[in-house]
Amino acid sequence: TAAADPEALRRRALEALTTARARTSLLTECVDERDLTAQHSPLMSPLVWDLAHISNQEEQWLVRAVAGAPAIRPEIDSIYDAFEHPRAARPTLPLLAPAEARSYALDVRGRVLDVLERTPLEGRPLLDAAFAFGMVAQHEQQHDETMLITHQLRRGAPALTAPEPPSGGAGAAGLPAEVRVPAGPFTMGTSTEPWALDNERPAHVRVVPEFFIDTVPVTNGAYLEFIEDGGYTEQRWWAPEGWAQIREHSIAAPLFWRREGGQWLRRRFGVGEPVPADEPVLHVSWYEADAYARWAGRRLPTEEEWEKAARHDPATGRSLRYPWGDADPGPDHANLGQRHLRPAAAGSYPAGRSPLGVRQLIGDVWEWTSSDFLPYPGFAAFPYREYSEVFFGPGHKVLRGGSFAVDAVACRGTFRNWDLPVRRQIFSGFRTARDADAAAPGAPGGR
Ligand code: AVJ
Ligand code: FE
């Protein structure tokens, strides 16, 4: 794509900021004051913290850093600094009340729209291709996903509704179980995607040996076989820390599942329902994903394998922006943006398949990979070390592909998410892989 003209960039930035704000408003207006200020889980902030944090970041980056205007409310910076206060401690802070947070948000956004209108969109790294505006819109959407997790953890009457995902495609039944990805080089990461964040850069070549990857994410039905085969009671499937976690917390199924009268039920945004067998499994930790894969005679894909399966076009040797090509995600490509409040059945979104035929890489569920979150060769922190750099290391595992809860602006073939391997309140699932010379599924020693 040629460099967009400044007016197109401005429109795109405005649209991204406006879309994010509509979602933020919905997530914070559908519950009462008490639900906004309460802490629904020690893992999460009160919703009203996210609300003001979104605007405080917007003020810091767009009003102060980009426009060079004086601070509006510098005295609240420290309250909304994620590094100063762990989530569990945030309810005790002197937070802005919901009405104050809303008027602060309106004030900041009003100024930001002026800044967007009159600032040249080139000449400084933060301004090039309106990067800072794209970064702030992505940040807001990331917190909208975080707030949706808080909604999922909240007890009480349902506050959110959405239409069911399309039952498009013939389902997973007619698809091959796995796809072969040929050996060879591919380009990982990006140096050209205008709003890619620092950890996705730069583009570089990786040589990946031949491997096989699941055509669709692991479903609830498949995961149930692991449970029913005693998966949670056999130490041999588990990494030591994972085994310790499930013993300590008596974990025997994905988060939000419970067994009642011989049936598995789950709670989803305040509603109890039978666990749907054909839907990608959700709310599993990295340890659960890793144990399932070992039980199945397989393994998690590495991050580079995941990205090659998603982006490599064998016909041209080029890496695509998305599995389906270079077009921005549309509603037929992937389940993104909280349009639906659940993953779509495995095998859905045929138009979103990769050139090799892998399905649902983008949207539905974040996919755990076996990889630690590490910088690419040539990484440079931008525009601040605390976005990615301080999280690099063996403590965090990479997730890829985005969930139904994340907006397209914060999801790309190159986008990298990360979390602690014990986390399961996030919208996480996985698919499995195997080396080319490992036993095929169904073969002795295979799954
Ligand atoms: C990239 C999702 C891990 O939520 O901690 C939000 C995104 N960074 N505010 C997070 C983020 C700063 C980040 N993740
Ligand atoms: Fe943040």
Automatic annotation (TrEMBL):
The keyword Cell membrane does not apply. Gamma-L-glutamyl-L-cysteine binds at R87, A88, A89, R90, D419, R423. It catalyses: gamma-L-glutamyl-L-cysteine + hercynine + O2 = gamma-L-glutamyl-hercynylcysteine S-oxide + H2O. InterPro entries: CTDL_fold, DinB-like, DinB/YfiT-like, EgtB, EgtB_Actinobacteria, Sulfatase_Mod_Factor_Kinase, SUMF_dom, SUMF_sf. Keywords: Iron, Metal-binding, Monooxygenase, Oxidoreductase. Residues 176-434 form the Sulfatase-modifying factor enzyme-like domain. Residues 306-338 are annotated as: Disordered. SUPFAM superfamilies: C-type lectin-like (SSF56436), DinB/YfiT-like putative metalloenzymes (SSF109854). It is an enzyme of class 1 (oxidoreductase). Gene3D superfamilies: dinb family like domain (1.20.120.450), paralog of FGE (formylglycine-generating enzyme) (3.90.1580.10). Its cofactor is Fe(2+). Residues 16-147 form the DinB-like domain. Pathway: Amino-acid biosynthesis; ergothioneine biosynthesis. Its EC number is 1.14.99.50. It comes from the Bacteria. PANTHER family: HERCYNINE OXYGENASE (PTHR23150:SF36), SULFATASE MODIFYING FACTOR 1, 2 (PTHR23150). HAMAP family: EgtB. Catalyzes the oxidative sulfurization of hercynine (N-alpha,N-alpha,N-alpha-trimethyl-L-histidine) into hercynyl-gamma-L-glutamyl-L-cysteine sulfoxide, a step in the biosynthesis pathway of ergothioneine. Belongs to the EgtB family. This is Hercynine oxygenase. It comes from Streptomyces solincola. The gene is egtB.
